[in-house]
Amino acid sequence: MRNLGIGTALGFGLLTVPAMAQDQFLPGPGSTSQTIIVTGVRDGYQIDATSTATRTPTELNDVPQAVSIITETQIDDQAMRSIADVLRYVPGAVISQGEGHRDQIILRGNSSTADFFVDGLRDDVQYYRGLYNAERIEVLKGPNAMIFGRGGGGGVINRVTKRPVANAFISGSGSADTYGAWYVDADISQPLSESVSTRMNAVYEEFRNNRDFYDGRRVAINPTVALSLGGATRIDLGFEYNSDKRTIDRGVPSAVQGSLTSPSRPLTGARDTFFGVPGFNVSDFEAKVLNGRGEHRFSDNLTLTSRVLYGDYDKLYRNAFPVTPVTSRGGVQSVGLEAYSDPTTRKNLLNQNDLVWRVTTGPVRHVLLAGFEISDQRTRNQRINGFFGGGDIVNGGRRVFVGLADPITVPPVTLRTTPNTGYRSIRTNADAAAFYVQDQISIGDHVDLIGGVRRDRFTLNVDDLVAGQSYRRTDTLWSPRVGVVLKPVQPVSIYASYSRSFLPQSGDQFSSLDVTSAALEPERFDNYELGLKWDIRPTLNLTAAIYQLDRTNTRAADPNDPARTVLTGAQRSKGLELGLSGAITPQWQISAGYALQDATIRKTTSAAPAGREVPLVPKQQASLWTRYDLTPRLGAGVGVYHQSRSFTSISNTAILPAFTRVDAAAFFKLTPQIEAQINVENLLNSNYFSSAYNDNNIMPGAPMTVRATVRMSF
């Protein structure tokens, strides 16, 4: 669906909104603007332009970077419900288990819990992101701190949300599957006048699957309003409430203790077995987010955009989980469990301001970007360890061994904050300020250049409330980006680029700063990339990229003094990524991808020797989804995903086996306003393992699951 965009208010910053390439203004009173607003049009599987990669309206073929976009149409066709569903069809992207309570991604061999953005603004809180209000999901590969700031070593994921449009409609869908999970959503647009329009997206979802004791629910609502002021200024305001409560399930352990020469595999025969404590294993997340975006067009060539986001997040999660492989204890096959609780609150205040100026001098065209960002993030986090009241316990009850059974029997768990229990309570305040400049230069019709640099000043204050100690670290980071795009013929572009990013030693979630790491330099990511983008036809795009991504300044214990931490680590990822998306014919949509990748440790540390493989990075990935409309009222779809084996942790002693999954779908247009579809996931009922967090938290894939959906639009 085409979204519009937005207008503004001078730099006090207001909203998160879709890409500027799709932004359009609502007509104001007395406006003579001839802008036509197109809404309600399904965009297929291809997007031609975005502003996310450059912060300026740019054709994708002119962006010197690999970008994968999953459209709303593809999300609907495949009945996707999560970021994990989306990434399955993105070459070079892998989903981690995320300890069963959050999105965690691996892009080009680099894992992150925080490299998420919504309408271009940072969304780094740990939770599962829904798709109910998503217009599309953009995956930008490789580090690009020039645009996004710290982190994003392997890339970032940006959700573009649905915004108010100029026409009225009501749409919604409902679905249910064979395990009792069900879902309803609504999308309502209502203009109030020529210059004011509103939109509301909402969802209610019940979680169920084949795993014992697993359940949960999500409730979310996202009302937005757009105001056009005189035709040159637009302001968008939005609010989102999100409540997500679900069982935490960290999968199964390894079958035996593995080694480098004989790696273990996941425990089989426990596809449904829950290795946790029913009622104790829970994640309870609540978010209240206000956002705004303002845009003012001084002229056709000069635009000021300001965005602001305030988020109040409250999360509690508790889990008991496997920490050992299956082992024999007194002749009984057993597995060791531990438990903890982690309450976290965070308040984010983010402001981003961009000035874009288009200048033409003879045959040379410039798109100049200058801007600044400020942010304030305040977090309170605790770690409260669990102790088991009986059974085969060790470490004073900190760990319990339970016999294999279905279901397993776990003694009661109590949480302790008394001394010598490993209790953690920290308070952090992360302040950041950045400015950046960028120039996109077009020389004639065949050569584009891009160059930019960003300066970040990131300050983190940590109060250890248990130890009564405080730590502080300030980093000043310079992040360049350069690229060249050659267009020998109109539908083909060839590019080369270099980009850099940094991650402070406090980590993704600010919790790893201590007296030692406060003295260490940030991690650094350097990416070199060559690529090709080819519009085989106006509706079908082929992409190819080869890259080398070096990560340095990773932390490790000093081999000569285990009490010290030093910067000795280094990692290299390199690979090939291929993608094909769009329409082969008006009736035939396709989304296909392939990745060949290698990610290894390059410097020996106490954690891993040089040459060891980075975890959860398969050598090969391949995906194909295609839909063919047999008649105007009947269509069919099929999907295939393959992933070669990978290791579950840096130990390289346990394997996530290779697997292939086949999906299918049938589509029915019942009336002009009502559509129905049936999706079958894991059509061949393959017994596979979909993801992992470590050697003993490995998630079995679901058996064949049938989901029926009805979609209406008026």
Q: Which features would summarize this protein structure in a list?
A:
Maltoporin, Chain A; five-stranded mixed β-sheet; mainly beta; globular; 40 strands; 714 residues
Write up this protein.
This protein is mostly beta strands and 714 residues long. It has a single domain, classed as Maltoporin, Chain A (Beta Barrel), CATH 2.40.170.20. The strands form six sheets. The protein has a 22-stranded antiparallel beta barrel. Residues 1-42 have low confidence and may be disordered.
Largest sheet, if any?
22 strands, antiparallel, barrel
Poorly predicted sequence stretches spanning 5 or more consecutive residues: 1-42
**Highest CATH level, the class:** Mainly Beta
Number of separate helices? 3
Could you state the CATH homologous superfamily?
A: TonB-dependent receptor, beta-barrel domain
Structural class: mainly beta
- Overall pLDDT: 90
CATH topology name: Maltoporin, Chain A
Proportion of beta-strand residues: over 45%
CATH architecture descriptor text: Beta Barrel
Roughly what percent helix?
Answer: under 10%
Radius of gyration: 25 Å
Taking the alpha carbons of the first and last residues, their distance comes to 15 Å
Oligomer: single chain
Q: Say how many strands there are.
A: 40
General shape: globular
Number of domains: 1
